[in-house]
Amino acid sequence: MKILIVGGGGREHAIAAAVARSPKADKIYCAPGNAGIAEVAECVPLGVDEFDKIASFAKEKEVDLVIVGPDDPLAAGIVDVLEAAGLRVFGPRKNAAILEGSKAFSKDLMKKYNIPTAAYETFDDAQKAVEYLETASFPIVLKADGLALGKGVLICNTKEEALEGVKSIMTDKQFGSAGNRMVVEEYMTGREVSVLSFVDGKHIKIMTSAQDHKRACDGDKGLNTGGMGTFSPSPFYTKEVDDFCKQYIYQPTVDAMAEEGREFKGIIFFGLMLTEKGPRVLEYNARFGDPEAQVVLPRMKNDIIDVVEACIDGTLDQIELQFEDNAAVCVVLASQGYPVKYEKGLKISSLEKFKDADGYFCYHAGTRFDNEGNIVTNGGRVLGITATGKDLKAARANAYEAAGWVDFANKYMRTDIGKAIDEA
User: Could you read off the pLDDT of 227-255 as tens digits, one per residue?
Assistant: First the structure.
């Protein structure tokens, strides 16, 4: 088979590496890819938003399967365009990708179908949001309605912070048009857990659990980022939690989307909060998480192409998902200053150490080749260093050991990814 992967970050590198392990993959393309993905795929200089060019390229190369990685092209309808060109595509169509594309839509869906989530109100007028906050309880959560690279959520401890948040989201448009509408949500306390799933429109298969670290600095301090590291599985995701979510959250979400005429095929990422009152949905994503994919996919035993094709064909119920009885930890190596301001073009050394290191993975998030053929930094999040181990503590030790193998100027990482493991 010829496979085309759309995207160019760490998630897409994890997908490409999983596809490369399949005996069915004869040729892999990636648009646009990066310096790490180039090891397993032919990178094509096409942007993820160039739908017609991607369609033309895939037709010309007689691509058998397209896998779409990022959220923006999914929300904008890339699957619809590629399917109209006669291509076989893995990912939700535009009318289903709204599950992530609009937080107001997803909250309304959960309310309508009694899927457990936080109480909320939606506003498209900043002044009305301000008036609501005058009588609200704090802390409270503000969410830009649209896509904001995983950064459009503000946790406000005081009324003053919340009023400033309304100004930054709705008036100053810190997240662009994503802030034209805003969801104001009850603040929930508990453990956060991420659960990825494959969906074929009717059936859902749950992958192993994971846990993300969004804040830039140790101790969950600093600004929200796209994710500074993950571990899998989460020790807090028990059988009791799994049973509850299967009955009240996972299948009900798939059924709700079908009932709304928005059949969902692809990946649903469930962001959960394990509260005292039970699991609640924090958010949905309509694609693999980044960096959750970097700890989940290395543990998956199945041939990813078999699973993806079952999702497209509606035969997912015939697949038994299997994962290694181990653990994985991913530590993100970023450029100092991320997520605000950082340098690019810094040479990265010692990447070759990963070539023969079993159980160690270096997923490129923001890299490129310079004019001399060196691999250099090309983003805020540069690399995702993943390692497996017999348990989470071993995987964490291995990941931090491997994070020390690589070097570039202004390298920055959190030192406490998975530290909660020690408290479990």
Answer: 999 999 999 999 999 999 999 999 999 99
**396 CB-contact burial (10 Å; exposed 0-12 / middle 13-18 / buried 19+):** buried
**Sheet of 182-186: strands edge to edge?**
120-123, 182-186, 140-144, 153-156
* Same domain, yes or no: 83 and 129: no
Quick check: is 399 in a domain?
Answer: yes
Write the pLDDT tens digit of every residue in 191-220.
999 999 999 999 999 999 999 999 999 999
Kindly report the number of other CB atoms within 10 A of residue 126's CB atom.
Answer: 16
Do residue 369 and residue 394 come from a single domain? Answer: yes
pLDDT tens sequence across 47-105: 999 999 999 999 999 999 999 999 999 999 999 999 999 999 999 999 999 999 999 99
pLDDT digits (tens, 9 = 90+) for 363-384: 999 999 999 999 999 999 999 9
CB proximity list for 157: less than 8 A, separation 6 or greater: 138, 139
Answer yes or no: do 392 and 342 share one domain: yes
Instruction: Report yes or no: 66 and 6 within 8 Å, Cβ to Cβ.
Output: yes
CA distance 401 to 423: 21
Beta pairing class for 27-32 and 2-7: parallel
Query: Residues near 420 by Cβ (< 8 Å), separated by ≥ 6?
Result: 191, 211
| 141: containing domain | 119-186
Q: Count Cβ atoms within 10 A of the Cβ of residue 78 and give its class: 0-12 exposed, 13-18 middle, 19 or more buried.
A: buried
3-state DSSP assignment of residue 22:
coil
Strands 2-7 and 65-68: parallel
Alpha helices in 299-391 (DSSP H): 304-313
Alpha carbon distances (Å) from 82 to 43, 46, 75, 264: 19, 14, 14, 16
Task: With residue 419 as reference, give the H or E element that holds it.
Answer: none
Is the distance from CB of 272 to CB of 282 less than 8 angstroms?
yes
Helix (H, G, I), strand (E, B) or coil at 29: strand
Q: How confident is the model over 89-101, as pLDDT tens digits?
A: 999 999 999 999 9
* Number of domain units in the chain: 4
For residue 8 the two structure tokens come to: 């160019």
Residue with tokens 């503590």: 393
